[in-house]
Amino acid sequence: MLSDIEIALQAKMLKINEIAAGLGIDEEDLEPYGHYKAKLSEQLYTKLADKPDGKLILVTAINPTPAGEGKTTISVGLAESMAKIGKKAILALREPSLGPVFGIKGGAAGGGYAQVVPMDDINLHFTGDMHAITAANNLLCALIDNSIHQGNPLRIDQRRILFKRCLDMNDRALREIIVGLGGKVNGFPRQDGFQITVASEIMAILCLADDLADLKARLERILIGYDLDGNPVYAGQLGGCGAMAALLKDALKPNLVQTLENTPAIMHGGPFANIAHGCNSVRATKLGLKLADYTITEAGFGSDLGAEKFFDIKCRYAGLKPDCVVLVATIRALKYNGGVARPDLTKENVEALRKGAVNLRTHIENMHKFGVPVVVAINRFHTDTDAEIKVIEEVCAEAGVQFSLAEIFAKGGEGGKDLAQKVCDTIDTKKSEYAPLYDTALPVKEKIEKVAREIYRADGVIYTAQAEKALREIEALGKTDLPICVAKTQYSLSDDPTKLGKPENFEITVRDMKLSSGAGFIVVYTGDIMTMPGLPKAPAAYSIDVDNEGNISGLF
Prior knowledge:
Elements: H1 4-9, H2 16-22, E1 30-32, E2 38-40, H3 43-47, E3 55-61, H4 71-84, E4 89-93, H5 98-101, E5 110-111, E6 114-117, H6 119-123, H7 129-149, E7 156-161, E8 165-167, E9 177-179, E10 190-192, E11 194-196, H8 201-208, H9 212-220, E12 223-227, E13 232-234, H10 235-238, H11 241-248, E14 255-259, E15 264-267, H12 282-291, E16 294-298, H13 303-318, E17 324-329, H14 331-337, H15 350-368, E18 374-379, H16 386-399, E19 402-406, H17 408-411, H18 417-429, H19 444-456, E20 460-463, H20 465-476, E21 484-487, E22 507-516, E23 521-526, E24 545-546, E25 552-553
Parallel strand pairs: 3-16, 3-17, 4-15, 4-16, 8-11, 17-18, 18-19, 20-22, 21-23
Antiparallel strand pairs: 1-2, 2-14, 5-6, 6-14, 7-12, 9-10, 12-13, 14-15, 22-23, 24-25
Helix pairs in contact: 4-18, 7-8, 7-11, 9-11, 14-15, 15-16
C-alpha cells in the first residue's frame, strides 16, 4: 500500500494556468509560484463582483481521536465527487501549520486518493503565508520592546503587555520566557512568551479582512497592552502597522492549487479551531462562491469548535449563508467515545459504538440549532463491520438526516459519489435557515453561557479570579459587543479531554479572557488548553526525510 506522499508524488498534475482556465480565470489574474500553485490577484474580486454566489457547504466533524478522523480527506473527496456527478465545485481549505506536520497529526492536505497537491509544498513552506504572518507578528513585538528601550514615549507598562511573539512550530519551551537579559544594551527585562503562529491575532485578522485597507485598519486596532496610568495602548499608536501590512500584502492573496483529480482548490488561512477561530479566509470562501456552483469549506476539529466559530464569527462578519453541513464521523472515533482504548478500535464492538454514538447525535442536534441541514459522512475504514454500519444507519434515521459511507481515502472521487448526490439532494429539498446562536449585544457572560449550555451541554460556567479581572478590563474598554472565540480541548464536548461521548453533570471553567480587538472577537480560555502546543514523545518529524535528489518521504 502506497503512503500519502508516494500517492501525491505520482499525481498527474495540470499546470496551474490550466486549473485557473477551467474556472474562467485569466492568466493576468494569476501570480504563479512555480508550475502548480499561484496567488490570485486583487483585481479578480472586482471582475467577479456581479456574478451570483454558488452554494456553500461546510464540512465539520464529531469529536476526534488524537489521530484525527479524515475531515480534510472528506472535504477533498467531496469536491472530486461533485465533479464525478457533473457539478462544478471548488474547495476552500485552510493551510497546514508546521506544528502538526512535525508533531502528532501529520499534514493537512487530505489523505490517500483524496489529497490537495503539491502535497509536500503545501505541508511545508507553500507560498510563505505562515512565514509572513510570523514576521508581521514578531515585528510588532520588536517595536513594542524597542519603544520601551528608546525612552518609552507611550509609557507602556511592561507588566501589562498582552501581545505575544509567535512561531509556527510546537515548542513548549517557549511558552514562558524572559526577554531583555544581558544588560542595558539589550533592553529592559520582562516576562514574555510565544504562541503558535496560527493562534496569533494576525492570523485571525488575515482570515477575516475584506481587503488590504481593512487589514491595515484591523492591525491598528490590536490591543498591545496598557500604559502606566491604566489606559489601553493600541498598535496604531505605536506605529509600524504600514510595515506589517507590507509584510502581509502577498499573504493576503488566496492560493490556488488542485486535488489529485485536478479539482480546483483555494487554500488560505490557518487551522487550529481549538485555540483559534479555525476557518479559512473570508476572501477565499467568497472567491469560491463566485467561481463555482458549489464551494466546499472546512472548519477545524469537532463542530463544537470549528463549526460554532464558523457560524458565530466568520459567517456573521462575512455575511455568508451556508446551505448544508457535512458532519464527518468514523466508527472507530465513535467507539473511542464509547470507551474503547485506541489499540482496540479496529475490533468490532457494537455495544461501545451504541454508547459512543451519543456524540454523533449531539453534534447533529447542535448543527440543527444554527438552522442548517445536515448530511452525515462516515469515513469508512476496512475494519468497519456490517453490524457497526447498521448502528450508524439507525442513529441517522432517528435524527432525521441522510448518511453516506464514503470510501474516499481508498477510491478518491469515485468513492464519494453517493455522498455528493445526497448533499446536492439535501440542498435542493431542505432550505437552510442559518442564524447565529447568539446576539453579540448580549453581555459576555451570557454569550459564554449560551455556547456552554447549547453546544457543550454544560450545566453552567465557573470563572476564575483572573477571568473575572480580564472581563472587567474588556468591559471598561467598551468592547463587549463582539463574538466570543472559545479555546477548548477538541477531544471532548467539555473542557476535560478525558470526558468522552456526551458528558453530563459538568461545568466549564473559564480561566482567562483576551480581547482581540483587531480580529473582532473575545478569546475565552477554558480548562488547560494552551496556545503553544508541545511535541509528542515520538514526533512525526522523526519519520520525515529527503534524499539526495530532493525527494521527500515520511509526510502524511
